[in-house]
Write a structure and sequence with these properties.
By secondary structure, this protein is α/β, with parallel strands linked by helices. Helices cover about 40% and strands about 10% of the residues. The chain contains 7 helices and 6 strands. It has a 6-stranded mixed beta sheet with strand order 1-2-3-4-5-6, with helices on both faces. Helix 2 links the parallel strand 1 and strand 2. Helix 3 crosses helix 4 and helix 6 crosses helix 7.
Length: about 220
């Protein structure tokens, strides 16, 4: 850190895939939690570190569908195409372009919408949220028999200290909003606002509920 801003980060980690025993040690508590308790939403926060596998995705998504629990995905490259028919799929701009193997930059909302439509078609996802870094957030929804809804919210002007955890905040607030039954344009707006708030704080911090409520209230009044 320098001048209250992040300069660099060094990680030491292992990326080996889980063996069979480790897999069931992970899956069985997830299965029990979904089967035995009330679960409102499932989030896949994928980091390509070997914990999440196509088998785990298939089993958890199938279990969630059985209990009518929505699934929200923050993907990475390795399992990008394993998340079929989930309600919300949230790549960032780089992941959207690389996942579709597009050579051109997605420099306009029109190009992003075209790419998101292609992604939605291939995944069967109901909703696409794409975080655009300092350009804000894009959203797209297409339900069977309904017209496409899409839009873009620019990033709020803020004093940025540290972007660590911003994507996690966006997906968690989006998931909570989805579980609460909010429409997609409000899900995107609230998640974008929350992601900007945490960037004002150094380090990985949780979103402060009262601060978020205060900012929402102030903007509604405006």
């Amino acid at each position: 850190m320098g001048n209250n801003a992040q300069l660099l980060r060094v990680d030491e980690e292992s990326e080996h895939n889980l063996n069979t025993e480790e897999f069931f040690q992970l899956f069985q508590p997830i299965e029990a939690q979904i089967e035995e308790r009330k679960v409102d939403v499932v989030i896949f926060e994928d980091y390509d570190k070997g914990v999440i596998s196509p088998e785990l995705i298939e089993k958890v998504v199938s279990l969630a569908k059985k209990h009518r629990i929505p699934v929200v995905v923050d993907p990475k490259k390795k399992n990008f195409w394993s998340y079929q028919q989930v309600p919300i799929f949230k790549p960032n701009l780089k992941e959207l372009r690389e996942g579709l193997k597009l050579e051109e930059e997605l420099s306009t909302i029109e190009k992003i919408d075209e790419a998101a439509g292609l992604l939605q078609q291939k995944l069967g996802a109901e909703m696409i949220l794409a975080t655009l870094s300092d350009k804000g957030i894009y959203y797209r929804r297409q339900s069977p028999g309904q017209e496409v809804q899409y839009g873009h919210y620019p990033a709020q002007l803020r004093k940025i200290s540290d972007v660590s955890g911003a994507g996690d905040t966006v997906v968690s607030v989006a998931a909570l909003s989805l579980a609460a039954g909010m429409p997609l344009h409000l899900i995107a707006w609230l998640a974008n606002l929350a992601g900007g708030i945490v960037c004002e704080h150094a380090g990985v911090v949780p979103i402060d509920k009262q601060q978020l409520l205060n900012e929402v209230s102030a903007r509604i009044v405006q």
